[in-house]
Amino acid sequence: MAIGAVLKADACENYTDVDGIFTADPRIVKNARKIDRISYDEMLELAGLGASVLQTRAVEFAKKYNVPIHVRNSQNEKEGTWIVAETPHMEHIVVSGVALKTDLIRVTVKNVPDRPGAAAKIFGDIAEANIVVDDIIQNVMDDNTANISFTVEHGDLHEIKPVVDRVIKELGGKTSPIYQDDLAKISAVGAGMKVHTGVAQRMFKALADAKINIQNITTSEIKISCIIGKQDAKNALQIVHDAFELGKTK
């Protein structure tokens, strides 16, 4: 991407072993469909939420210098997926794709003193340990304490435990952290969420009808993510994909 930007190229061709970016992981969702065009922001969200075709840093660079990316298969001449600047037409598509991130751990710290700087101390020390934190939820209790939960990749468990134990002790916390390691995150991404209503309800209802419990919810302007049990992960991906009819030819 950097070379393409310096050369002011018309596009950057990215060759992979798949035909492009799909509406979901085709190894899990059999009716996943190749996306013809997707915005930089949508691709950034999908890449950060489990879609592994492109790295977020490459997409960020392409967006900054407005270099279109063409993701295509190195084994054929088929048109792949174009990653480009957002256009008004893209908002007509409510959801462009769904992604799944597995092997998540939720860290819950209870009875943290509810005072200015407590959260900054916790996440500052975690950042210094080069551990990336995902979803964060804080609940303030009536006794002037707070419960803080956040998720990290399973591979960071060994590194994060001593950091959390130390910082909680320094803050005067009296409860040992709780680590839950059987979680996954299902996400729906689409530029159309900015102008369409009922997207979250549609996703939640699809999961509820399948008896899949939602444990945490996070959103952005073009993303809805739900933390669920890992045992439901693959089924949830198919269910949400079908709820938005992403397998149908546009």
Structure in a nutshell:
This protein has 250 residues and is α+β, with helices and mostly antiparallel strands. Helix content is 28%, strand content 29%.
Walk me through this protein's architecture:
The two termini are 29 Å apart. It contains 7 helices and 10 strands. It has a domain at 2-90: Acetylglutamate kinase-like (Carbamate kinase, 3-Layer(aba) Sandwich). The model has no long low-confidence stretch (mean pLDDT 91). The protein is 28% helix and 29% strand. Helix 2 (40-48) packs antiparallel against helix 3, helix 4 runs antiparallel to helix 5 (157-171) and helix 6 (199-209) crosses helix 7 (233-243). The protein is globular. With 250 residues, it is α+β, with helices and mostly antiparallel strands. The strands form 2 sheets. A 6-stranded antiparallel β-sheet has the order 6-7-5-8-10-9. The chain has helices at residues 2-6, 40-48, 56-64, 118-128, 157-171, 199-209, 233-243, and strands at residues 12-16, 37-39, 69-73, 81-84, 97-113, 136-140, 145-153, 178-189, 216-220, 223-229.
Topology:
Layout: H1 2-6, E1 12-16, E2 37-39, H2 40-48, H3 56-64, E3 69-73, E4 81-84, E5 97-113, H4 118-128, E6 136-140, E7 145-153, H5 157-171, E8 178-189, H6 199-209, E9 216-220, E10 223-229, H7 233-243
Parallel strand pairs: 1-3, 2-4
Antiparallel strand pairs: 3-4, 5-7, 5-8, 6-7, 8-10, 9-10
Helix pairs in contact: 2-3, 4-5, 6-7
Task: State the main characteristics.
250 residues, alpha+beta, Carbamate kinase, four-stranded mixed beta sheet, 7 helices, 10 strands, 29% strand, globular
